[in-house]
């Protein structure tokens, strides 16, 4: 007679299958703070309560850092000195200062132009006789635009995408697997291959001796105001890896889910098409047009609520603290779960259902506190404005070309896989009806 699996074994299996679902259920059934039943000295906590999250990310942020075993796994791929992983406060401030100009409004205008040109080219190449994998198309677009903006026009984005895919798709699995689990050797080789290519790009730029105006050039020429030292090649490499991770499929995930939702709600696409026609007719939307695309904004915001780009992120407990009814010890790990926060029925009526109308009016105080698709506090995502603006542009350009989205028979579009982001398992395969049919 087979032995009944223990609770930790069941939890481990569920974590590997879909950690987002498990963590959401735990958080929402335990008043927003729940312990994962995993054996060991170190405890793992899932937190979705907005007040607790505000403490962790804002008011008491110094008590929670990016140390511990979860970030060790992430840092194994991204490096310890990237903007996403760095723990040292002074280094973080320097990196943020260096990278901020690349995300200012003047630069975002350039990104909008890059995005429009690249997206138009991708759509022109589609064979509309069959379904289009929108997630795959949007991911390739995101990497191309981000790398053109960050590394210049000479970079082979197709090669970088191919090398980055096994690193970032595999990262989530390594978080919920022991280090010795099968596949660890292959994963290390994937990191080494991407690392080698990025370092060769940095080395080639140094050999050129030119100060290009892209982000890579800024990183290589910036100096620490206190020491006068420039960033090392390793620090520059870590920033490139961070940018790749942050933009690899985050925006693509949200936008592909938005398209799946529009396939289910044809009226939403009709409203979007009407709005885009009124605002900019058939010309490419500009930065100045975006504030008037209120339907597109509500659609994007609701998609971010239902499917935040990063449904979970992490913190390490630096000082013993109380969260809700629970006492957390130094070294405990916190899984911050905005996916659960965004689906709390106490704050969001009909939380699992799509309703962009909830963003047509101002959110109430509790909803604003429970909406954090880009995080919160000083380490909030630096790319929020870029992701929002390019997202609105992409949705508007789709509305200018297509009159209907439809899912192929036999594809629900709802199954998902966790890979730091949580895209649909079928890559958002949709049949698109062009405007001239």
From TrEMBL:
It comes from Nonomuraea guangzhouensis. This is Cytochrome P450. The keyword Transmembrane does not apply. InterPro entries: Cyt_P450, Cyt_P450_CS, Cytochrome_P450_Monoox. Belongs to the cytochrome P450 family. Keywords: Heme, Iron, Metal-binding, Monooxygenase, Oxidoreductase. It comes from the Bacteria. The keyword Nucleotidyltransferase does not apply.
């Amino acid at each position: 007679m087979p032995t009944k699996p223990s609770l930790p074994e069941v939890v481990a299996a569920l974590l590997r299958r879909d950690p987002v679902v498990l963590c959401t259920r735990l958080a929402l059934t335990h008043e927003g703070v729940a312990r994962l039943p995993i054996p060991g000295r170190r405890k793992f906590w899932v937190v979705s309560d907005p007040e607790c999250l505000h403490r962790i990310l804002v008011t008491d942020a110094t008590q929670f850092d990016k140390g511990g075993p979860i970030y060790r796994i992430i840092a194994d791929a991204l490096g310890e000195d990237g903007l996403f992983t760095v723990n040292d406060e002074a280094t973080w401030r320097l990196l943020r200062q260096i990278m901020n100009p690349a995300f200012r409004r003047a630069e975002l205008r350039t990104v909008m132009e890059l995005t429009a040109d690249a997206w138009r080219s991708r759509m022109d190449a589609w064979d509309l006789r069959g379904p289009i994998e929108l997630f795959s198309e949007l991911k390739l677009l995101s990497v191309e635009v981000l790398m053109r903006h960050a590394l210049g026009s000479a970079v082979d984005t197709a090669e970088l995408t191919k090398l980055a895919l096994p690193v970032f798709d595999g990262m989530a699995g390594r978080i919920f697997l022991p280090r010795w689990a099968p596949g660890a050797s292959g994963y290390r080789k994937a990191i080494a291959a991407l690392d080698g290519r990025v370092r060769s790009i940095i080395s080639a730029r140094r050999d050129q001796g030119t100060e290009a105006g892209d982000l890579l050039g800024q990183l290589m020429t910036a100096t620490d105001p206190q020491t006068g030292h420039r960033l090392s090649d390793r620090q520059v490499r870590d920033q490139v890896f961070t940018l790749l991770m942050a933009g690899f499929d985050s925006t693509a995930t949200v936008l592909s889910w938005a398209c799946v939702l529009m396939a289910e709600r044809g009226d939403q696409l009709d409203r979007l098409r009407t709005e885009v026609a009124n605002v900019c007719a058939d010309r490419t939307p500009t930065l100045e047009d975006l504030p008037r695309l209120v339907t597109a904004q509500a659609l994007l915001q609701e998609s971010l609520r239902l499917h935040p780009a990063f449904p979970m992120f992490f913190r390490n407990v630096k000082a013993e603290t109380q969260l809700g009814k629970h006492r957390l010890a130094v070294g405990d790990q916190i899984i911050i779960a905005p996916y659960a926060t965004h689906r709390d029925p106490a704050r969001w009526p009909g939380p699992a259902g799509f309703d962009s109308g909830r963003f047509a009016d101002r959110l109430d105080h509790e909803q604003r506190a429970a909406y954090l698709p880009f995080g919160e506090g000083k380490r909030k995502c630096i790319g929020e404005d870029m992701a929002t603006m390019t997202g609105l542009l992409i949705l508007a350009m789709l509305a200018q070309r297509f009159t209907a989205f439809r899912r192929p028979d036999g594809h629900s579009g709802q199954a998902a896989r966790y890979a730091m982001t949580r895209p649909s398992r079928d890559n958002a395969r949709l049949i698109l009806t062009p405007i001239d049919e």
